[in-house]
UniProtKB/TrEMBL annotation, chain A:
The chain crosses the membrane at residues 6-32, 44-65, 91-109. This is Branched-subunit amino acid transport protein. Keywords: Membrane, Transmembrane, Transmembrane helix. Pfam families: AzlD.
UniProtKB/TrEMBL annotation, chain B:
The chain crosses the membrane at residues 17-36, 135-157, 163-181, 188-207. One of its GO terms (biological process) is L-valine transmembrane transport. It is a multi-pass membrane protein. Signal peptide: none annotated. This is 4-azaleucine resistance transporter AzlC. InterPro entries: Brnchd-chn_aa_trnsp_permease. GO terms for cellular component: plasma membrane. Pfam families: AzlC (PF03591). It is found in: Cell membrane. Belongs to the AzlC family. Keywords: Cell membrane, Membrane, Transmembrane, Transmembrane helix, Transport.
């Protein structure tokens, strides 16, 4: 893990603080009672559900801790966390079963 | 302005929001731990949680920071993850848009998954609520969560420094995110959006500056929106 310099961290924190606030404020503050175009809302609905899997997929297939070698414990943990989250709709249950799978398999493999 | 017992609506909101402390607290803890692992000091970590106040975006920024992504891409990607709060803001507007600007300015800062979900359910169930009642309900619903999110972050940041490397925390972040994806898969369109994003992300992994993430995200969004249109057309 490389050391990140402090200026970069502050730029990101401040940038995200301002940006997130603007995202929240734009509609409720500025748009007020005017209606919004349906095509915009339709795309906004799928932002998180697209970006988050796109961020995670390469980390699952080529984990950095194993220098990019596909890894059974990590793949299994990913599958368990996703499945439990989908079935139970419970984020914490999914985190804990995923973590248990990861540690269980890491222990067995090692 | 303040009509019939606004106070009772505050407590209604508080009660509806209370179960989410079991999400906010551990989530804050995780963020504190990850941020410390990534090399943020306690002031940076606390400022991050208190000002940005958006778990998924914060986790995204941390992950990309560790991959040496250019600052601009980190900002765009994390804000893209947070675009959903803009959608929440948009759909709360018909209910709260008539409140005074200073109230809307404060409420904007507190738009998170939980306050949005509680409020929309309540506002739809009780269409006769006045604007002040809705506003006080909204603030009530987020009151139990905010302090515990910040407290959780603090505890995580303090604990984080004491966690040994052998704990394979490299993968705790992906697990956290994957756990969040499951409950988001509400319709076929959501599933397709995620699948398209995954495939494009894997194909564009060699694109510099982690730009593949934005390409994949955009592809997923378009795919989700198109499927939604198709399903609507088939229905009618």
């Amino acid at each position: 893990m490389t050391q990140i310099d402090s200026t970069t961290i502050w730029i990101i924190i401040i940038g995200l603080a301002i940006g997130s606030y603007l995202l929240r404020f734009t509609f409720i503050g500025l748009v007020g009672d005017r209606p919004m175009p349906p095509w915009l809302l339709r795309h906004l609905r799928y932002t998180a559900v697209a970006i988050i899997p796109a961020l995670i997929a390469p980390l699952v297939v080529w984990p950095s801790a194993t220098d990019g070698q596909p890894d059974l414990p990590r793949m299994s943990a990913a599958a368990v966390a996703l499945t439990v989250g989908y079935v139970t709709k419970n984020v914490l249950a999914a985190i804990f079963t995923g973590a248990a799978t990861l540690y269980g398999l890491l222990y067995l493999v090692a | 302005m303040a009509s019939a017992t606004p106070k009772s609506y505050f407590w209604k909101g508080f009660r509806d929001g209370a179960p989410f402390v079991f999400v906010a607290m551990p989530f804050g803890l995780l963020f504190g731990v990850f941020a410390t692992e990534a090399g943020l000091n306690i002031i940076q970590t606390m400022t991050f949680s208190a000002t940005v106040f958006a778990g998924a975006a914060q986790f995204t920024a941390l992950q990309l920071l560790q991959d040496n992504t250019p600052t601009v891409i980190v900002l765009i990607s994390a804000l893209a993850v947070n675009l959903r709060v803009a959608m929440y803001s948009a759909s709360l507007t018909p209910y709260l848009g008539a409140a005074p600007l200073w109230q809307r300015a404060c409420a904007a800062y507190l738009i998170v998954d939980q306050s949005y979900a509680c409020s929309m359910i309540r506002f739809e169930k009780e269409p006769d609520m006045t604007v002040p009642q809705r506003m006080i309900y909204f603030f009530g619903s987020v009151t139990p969560i905010t302090p515990l999110w910040v407290l959780g972050t603090y505890l995580g940041a303090v604990l984080g420094t004491q966690i040994p490397e052998s704990w394979a925390l490299d993968f705790a972040l992906p697990i956290t995110f994957l756990a969040m994806i499951g409950p988001m898969m509400r319709t076929l369109a959501h599933v397709v959006a995620a699948l398209v994003a995954i495939v494009v992300a894997l194909l564009t992994v060699a694109v510099p500056f982690n730009l593949g993430l934005l390409i994949a995200g955009a592809a997923g969004m378009v795919a989700g929106a198109q499927i939604e249109l198709m399903l609507e057309r088939n229905k009618s």
